[in-house]
Design a protein that fits this description.
- By secondary structure, the chain is an alpha+beta fold.
- The chain folds into three domains: 303 residues, FAD/NAD(P)-binding domain (3-Layer(bba) Sandwich), CATH 3.50.50.60; 125 residues, Flavocytochrome C3, Chain A, domain 1 (Alpha-Beta Complex), CATH 3.90.700.10; 101 residues, Up-down Bundle (Methane Monooxygenase Hydroxylase, Chain G, domain 1), CATH 1.20.58.100.
- The chain is built from 18 helices and 20 strands.
- Strands 12-11-16-15-13-14 form a six-stranded antiparallel beta sheet. It has a four-stranded antiparallel beta sheet with strand order 17-10-19-20. Strands 2-4-3 form a three-stranded antiparallel beta sheet.
- Helix 6 packs across helix 16, helix 14 packs antiparallel against helix 15 and helix 17 crosses helix 18.
- Bound molecules: flavin-adenine dinucleotide.
- Flavin-adenine dinucleotide binds next to helix 1, strand 1, helix 5, strand 6 and helix 6.
Length: 658
């Protein structure tokens, strides 16, 4: 198991329970994995949400609708069906979830849904989940079923002559020893790649280096261009720190003064002089529209309307000052972060926030087996979560499977833990099909893997030149953030692709600042930078080729504009044309981007998405003319759009957000 975040620990725990020995490899102590930063919560329905009309099907529907239908539906259905049981399991493991006065697990509302569906432990949910899973894994460690390799870095896989993954090569981050680990399967639970964008809300080890390494060794990488930019983070010089969606889930409001750069104390600005733009533009979802939309609106208000609170440093207010002390109490974990890094108390003064790179929907391509009866997954199938390399699996943020074009808040923790848990029966059955164990293979298979990475390290140490890896990283991040995040234009993306090529050349002349053989962090970073450059190209190429708008991928030049009630053309004609355009767009682009590594850069192809359970439909949050569009879509287009609506299909609020 490469990675000891929520996905890796859930997987290790489940495998150990089934009597399967696991080595867990992690660059950090597992309790410091990036998952520890997760703040707001984890989604699933329960008896309380059901009483409000919620259901597993609505959770499923919100997830694929929020993801703009780019998610394969069988895995998402299975995940949302298992949600309640995942929470029950975590509860039994001792996670201190917040409770209602009656003793039920409390829920808050998160983005992209109208239901309070998110279970939480204050605003430090990731930490509480991670520590509980860590306790379980330590228990198995004490019984000899798990061996932890903390402070070891994954360098690459070992594949036998038949193309089957048989282990991996790792490096001790203290002694710099490189060695092989034999394994009958390797699971990548290595998280996301935010550092490619320089500054992000992710932890500083989230380089995507490990994911890039398996991609360079032949694993496919899917939907790389789908990068989530979270609407609310604290701008910072060193990194960007998240102000969780839970702040809005507890009632926080986003606004700007109607007067540009109003110098008054925000608390003295009267209500009618404030522009609550998310509430005004999206009355149904309000401050809790999906993240891609909230982010674009904040950009629009700052960049196009000129209403940023500060003229030169774009930001808007996230206001919690009106909330009662009980709500503040539930958010203490994040309020402390704001106080510490912004130097102001968010209980008494509105916070200043701006969007930041946050999550990668794309990741290592993985397979699944569909259950023909349920439409979900065939649990226990060795295909579930397997990459195109036999014996190599991927789970958690490292894979691409669950979130389509835009992840809903609080769905990641669920997808990580769910995918980790299903690795148990998946691998148990995969092992049954193996004719030979890694332990029986000749030592030469493993020795050549070790040699490859020692040679790589020696080449890096022998480099000379005037370039500086940290400077190159800074330039990469700035170009990626400027041209491959919220609003994308092809000419700008091409500039970034040129920049990546230039940086890749200059990278060859970036020597190690430290060639020592003890805790050489400079080696680790410089090596990862090479891998980031490779993955950056996958992201930028995917973005360049995808000429459409879908979820987090927004190209104004290919946007399908809403209807114009003031036009001479009647609304029905406009709606029909809109639906035509929308159908054409889906015919061409409702596809998974799949990248294969070649020495000339990524080779991209496109695969169909399984939309067999919920037919794709227009995403109408805030869309002008949504009611008429949906009427025409249902009566004239839906039958051709894919599957028949599922029996329990919900009545989705038409034109929600108008
Ligand atoms: C600030 C913040 C708050 C968030 N809040 C929420 C939330 O409230 N709800 C929600 O659903 N999602 C949230 N998310 C998203 C969620 O936290 C992550 O998607 C999720 O925790 C990822 O878990 P993971 O197990 O896949 O990876 P990680 O937790 O990132 O773990 C990756 C593991 O891989 C190891 N690793 C990586 N590279 C190597 C290598 N080369 N060699 C060895 N080991 C390696 C690391 O050491 C680590 O153990 C948040 C994200 C951020 C940034």
């Amino acid at each position: 198991m490469i990675g000891g975040g929520l996905a890796g620990l859930a997987g290790a725990m489940k495998l150990a329970e089934l009597g399967i020995g696991v080595d867990v490899v992690s660059m950090t102590p597992v309790k410091r994995s990036h998952s520890v930063c997760a703040q707001g919560g984890i989604n699933s329905v329960n008896a309380t949400t059901r009483a409000q009309g919620d259901s597993e099907h609505l959770h499923f529907d919100d997830t694929v609708y929020g993801g703009d239908f780019l998610n394969h539906q069988p895995p998402v259905k299975e995940m949302t069906d298992w949600g309640p049981r995942v929470i029950d399991l975590l509860d039994r493991l001792g996670v201190p979830f917040n409770r209602t006065p009656e003793g039920h697990i409390d829920r808050r509302r998160f983005g992209g849904t109208l239901y309070k569906r998110t279970a939480f432990a204050g605003a430090t949910t990731g930490q509480q989940l991670l520590y509980s899973l860590d306790e379980q894994v330590r228990r198995w460690e004490s019984e000899g079923a798990v061996k932890l390799y903390e402070w070891w870095e994954f360098l690459g896989t070992i594949v036998d002559d038949g193309g089957v993954c048989r282990g991996c090569v790792i490096q001790d981050m203290f002694s710099m020893e490189i060695r092989a680990l034999k394994a009958d399967a390797v699971v990548m639970a290595t998280g996301g790649c935010g550092l490619i964008f320089g500054k992000s809300t992710m932890s500083m080890i989230c380089t995507g280096g490990a994911n890039s390494r398996v991609y360079q060794e032949g694993a496919k990488y899917a939907n790389g261009e789908f990068i989530q930019v979270h609407p609310t983070a604290i701008p910072g010089q060193d990194k960007l720190r998240l102000m969780s969606e839970s702040a809005r889930g507890e009632g926080g409001r986003v606004w700007v003064p109607r007067t540009p750069q109003d110098k008054r104390d925000p608390r003295s600005i009267p209500e009618k002089e404030r522009y609550y733009f998310l509430e005004e533009r999206y009355p149904t979802y309000g401050n809790l529209v999906p993240r891609d939309i909230a982010t674009r609106e904040i950009f629009d208000v700052c960049a196009n309307l000129g209403l940023s609170v500060e003229k030169d440093d774009f930001c808007v207010y996230l206001d919690l000052t009106h909330l009662p002390p009980e709500a503040h109490h539930k958010l203490e974990g994040i309020l402390a972060i704001y106080e510490k890094f912004a130097g102001a108390d968010p209980r008494v003064a509105p916070m200043k926030i701006f969007p930041a790179v946050h999550y990668s929907m794309g990741g290592i391509w993985v397979d699944y087996e569909k259950d023909a009866k349920t439409g979900g997954l065939k649990l226990g199938s060795p295909k579930n979560q397997m990459t195109n390399v036999p014996g190599l699996y991927a789970i958690g943020e490292a894979d691409y499977q669950y979130h389509g074009a835009n992840r809903l808040g609080a769905n990641s923790l669920l997808s990580c833990i769910f995918a980790g848990l299903i690795m148990g029966p998946t691998l148990e059955n995969y092992f049954k099909s193996l004719k030979q164990s890694a332990a029986d293979l000749p030592a030469s298979v493993f020795d050549r893997g070790v040699k490859k990475h020692k040679d790589h390290m020696d080449r890096l140490a022998a480099r000379s030149g005037n370039e500086n890896a940290y400077k190159l990283h800074d330039e990469l991040g700035k170009s990626m953030t400027a041209n491959c995040t919220v609003v994308r234009y092809n000419d700008k993306i091409k500039q970034t692709l040129g920049k990546i090529d230039e940086l890749s050349q200059r990278y060859q002349h970036a020597p190690l600042a430290d060639t020592g053989k003890w805790t050489n962090q400079n080696l680790s970073f410089t090596r990862a930078l090479g891998d980031m450059l490779v993955l950056a190209k996958v992201i930028a190429m995917g973005a360049l080729q995808r000429d459409e708008c879908r979820g987090a991928h927004y190209k104004p030049d290919f946007d399908i504009q809403g209807l114009d009630p003031g036009s001479k053309e009647n609304m029905t004609t406009q709606a029909r044309r809109w639906c035509d355009d929308f159908k054409r767009r889906n015919d061409q682009w409702l596809k998974t981007t799949v990248a294969i590594h070649t020495t000339d850069g990524p080779m991209l192809s496109y695969e169909d998405v399984d939309t067999s359970l919920i037919p794709p439909r227009p995403r109408t949050y805030g869309l002008k003319g949504a009611e008429e569009i949906m009427r025409i879509w249902k009566t004239e287009f839906q039958a051709d759009a894919g599957a028949a609506p599922a029996a329990k299909a919900p009545s989705v609020p038409v034109g929600a957000g108008l």
